[in-house]
Amino acid sequence: MDLGSWDSFELIAHPPESADNYGYLGVYAIGIHFDVIGVKKAPAAGMNTQGLSCDMQTLLGTKYPDKPDDDDDKTGILVAFVCDWALSNFANVGEVKDALTNTHTVWGPTKFSFDQHFSFRDANGDSIVVEFLAHETVITEDPNDGKKGFGIMTNEPPYPWHVENVKHYEWKKNLASPVIEAPGAFYPDHRFIRLHNLKGGLEAPKSNKDLIMNAVHLLNSVTIPPGLIMGTDSGDGEGEGDHTIFGIVYDHTENVVYYRSFDNQSLQRVRLQDLNLDEVGGAKNFLPVVNDNDWFVDAARSFRRIP
Known about the structure:
The chain is α+β, with helices and mostly antiparallel strands. It has a single domain, classed as 4-Layer Sandwich (Penicillin V Acylase, Chain A). It has 5 helices and 15 strands. The protein has helices spanning 82-89, 93-102, 159-173, 188-201, 208-221; strands spanning 2-3, 9-14, 24-30, 41-48, 53-58, 75-78, 104-107, 116-121, 127-133, 136-141, 243-244, 246-251, 256-261, 264-271, 285-288. A hairpin with a 2-residue loop joins strand 13 and strand 14 (264-271). Helix 3 (159-173) packs across helix 4. The longest helix is centred in the middle third of the chain and has 15 residues, at 159-173. It is globular and about 75 Å long. It starts with a strand and ends in a 19-residue tail after the last strand. It holds the Pfam family CBAH. This is Choloylglycine hydrolase/NAAA C-terminal domain-containing protein. GO terms for molecular function: hydrolase activity.
């Protein structure tokens, strides 16, 4: 998550509110614009007990559908609560897509600009990107097959543009005498291409650890460190203030979330099974993303005498 706000996120273990809901671990944004509409915090990312994840990211130029009227045949969802709605109610990407197509409409506030798009992934390997363009909901499947999708989402322009940009990039690579650039900035299109190139060169993982480490290596390539870093996004709260506040790796099949923050680059692991997320109406527990957990492993104790 790249923003200019440093200490405004916390992890919340959110048990199901009814027997028909699912529990989830959410990364909540605290007080970033939301107070204007009477909302103190809202989840920007997270994963539920069924292995469905939701991520909200900036997409400048977003234009939401109108808020449904009381007599409309669709139910309205304020954009700030899309991840809460999805993670609480659905087990997989197909269910989210069906709801956004047939029964629910996402709408945005008018008191401030809050341009967002969403990525949903599940334990089956399915993925969609949901965007709101020209007041319409646009759902694009991301099969992560290297042809119609690449398992990557950054920011503007809209997702289909990035897919076509990668296809054009691959076309140039396959010419008889290719000359192609290696994008090294932190603009959304550079990050998208860079991740695509690196993903294509990774060795196939032989273990769960290999899988997670592959994801971490990719995350390293697009992490914006603190400081005056050139070549970042442009927009309110970005530019000089655009840095990576935290990074997340989801293990959708094992229901494990790994995360790290700008303040602590050591991976912190949260197994959803350890959070009592099956207790209907249970208490919510939280942990600030920037916390006092160990930021290093003391390796001295692991030394052994040479025989």
